[in-house]
Amino acid sequence: MKLLIFLGTVRDSTPPNPPRLGLRVARACLAQMHQNDISAELIDPLDFDPGPIFKPHFAYAQGKAPAQLQSLADKIAAADGYVMVSPEYNHSMSPALAHLLNHFGSSLFSYKPSAIVTYSAGQWGGVRAAVGMRSFLSELGCLPVSAMIHIPKAHEVLAEDGNFLAQVDAKEWASYFGRTFAQLTWWASAAKSQRHAIDPHKLVRAFKRDPSQRNSPAS
């Protein structure tokens, strides 16, 4: 089973302090996945340069997309599920995460589950961002599982390498992560089996041209 962990921040300076707090959270997710013999890969938006002009992957002629864009599209298509890691900006998900995901159409994500992981340096753990993320991910077709992970004061929970700090109960935190990831891997396994049995894209055609394809006949 293949999972992608999307990191939703491009901040690499202070403030905030410590910088790149989300990278600790993403590394913690990666560590928890590897303990369960899951193949997981971290997608860091700082490693991805889509160019100065926004143009989604599906807007390019076949074989003409930039190499980085095509490479990530291939990874998304090959994955069985996704973990979305986001801070909270103005009660909303990270614009960096939305920008990265918006380069790709729902046909690449659809019929696979996702998990929402939010964090903050303050007391709320990014929980308000998670509310909007449910709608966003559902529109992409990778419906989020019901359990979510919220980490308040993440710098007091996780070390830079993603391990739990000595002052927290590592077993309790691992169990908390495990509840969400157990749901994710269960649904990912079920969806993978069903995709092999019945190709969903033959049942419902993918919209790849423009948003008007979603319109009702009366529109």
Structural class: alpha/beta
How large a portion of the residues is in β-strands, by DSSP E?
5-15%
**How do the strands line up in the largest sheet?**
2-1-3-4-5
Arithmetic mean pLDDT: 91
**Spatial extent as radius of gyration:** 18 Å
Q: What helical percentage do the residues reach?
A: 25-40%
Work out the helix count: 7
- Number of DSSP strand runs: 5
Amino-to-carboxy terminus distance: 41 Å
| Helix/strand order, N-terminal first | EHEHEHHEHEHH
Major beta-sheet overview: 5 strands, parallel
Can you tell me the residue ranges where pLDDT is under 50 for at least 5 consecutive residues? none
State the shape: globular
How is the secondary structure organized here?
Layout: E1 2-7, H1 21-35, E2 39-43, H2 67-78, E3 81-86, H3 95-101, H4 106-109, E4 114-119, H5 127-140, E5 149-151, H6 170-197, H7 200-203
Parallel strand pairs: 1-2, 1-3, 3-4, 4-5
Brief account:
With 219 residues, the chain is α/β, with parallel strands linked by helices. The chain is 38% helix and 12% strand.
Task: Describe this entry's structure for a reader.
38% of the residues lie in helices and 12% in strands. With 219 residues, it is of the alpha/beta class. Strands 2-1-3-4-5 form a 5-stranded parallel sheet, sandwiched between helices. Helix 1 (21-35) links the parallel strand 1 (2-7) and strand 2 (39-43). The longest helix is centred in the last third of the chain and has 28 residues, at 170-197. The protein starts with a strand and ends in a 16-residue tail after the last helix. The model has no long low-confidence stretch (mean pLDDT 91).
